[in-house]
Write a structure and sequence with these properties.
- The chain has a 4-stranded mixed β-sheet.
- The protein contains 6 helices and 4 strands; from the N terminus they run ααββααααββ.
- It is globular.
- It starts with 5 loop residues before the first helix and ends in a 7-residue tail after the last strand.
- The protein is of the alpha+beta class.
């Protein structure tokens, strides 16, 4: 992934949002097919306990962890993989989003996440959608 300028990040985010909108309008696609086509890390979380319901293929490949492994780690995942800036600045923005518990919204933000292959922090765009109901997307 590596470093990108703010302009490059903004362009990427706009392309991703366009792609996301296009994919959600496409008929005949399963939820998993849609999220696996989204660039960046995309996951849905349950409002009740914030556990990950679904994570796209790119998220699993990048982290080298399954959603089950991340759920088992809980907040320890962030302490081990998230840059302190992400925890201090981006974390509260996601916390506010979680507290709103609006399952009609998607939260997108840039995070610095440790790449397990290089042990360096990469800028990653992360999309989160909350699931208020018990319908799983497995």
């Amino acid at each position: 992934m590596g470093y990108k300028t703010d302009k490059e990040n903004l362009a990427t985010q706009m392309q991703n949002l366009y792609l996301l909108d296009k994919l959600f309008r496409k008929e005949g696609c399963s939820f998993k097919e849609i999220v696996d086509d989204i660039p960046g890390i995309f996951h849905t979380n349950y409002v009740a306990d914030m556990s990950i319901d679904n994570m796209n293929r790119e998220g699993e490949e990048y982290s080298q962890l399954t959603k089950e492994e991340i759920n088992e780690m809980g907040f320890e995942y962030f302490l081990e993989y998230a840059h302190p800036y992400t925890i201090e600045v981006v974390g509260p923005r996601f916390q506010k989003f979680y507290e709103e518990a609006d399952d009609e919204k998607v939260k997108a933000d840039f995070q610095l996440i440790k790449n397990p292959k290089t042990n360096e922090y990469d800028t990653s765009v992360s999309y989160t959608h909350l699931r208020a109901h018990e319908t799983r997307h497995d």
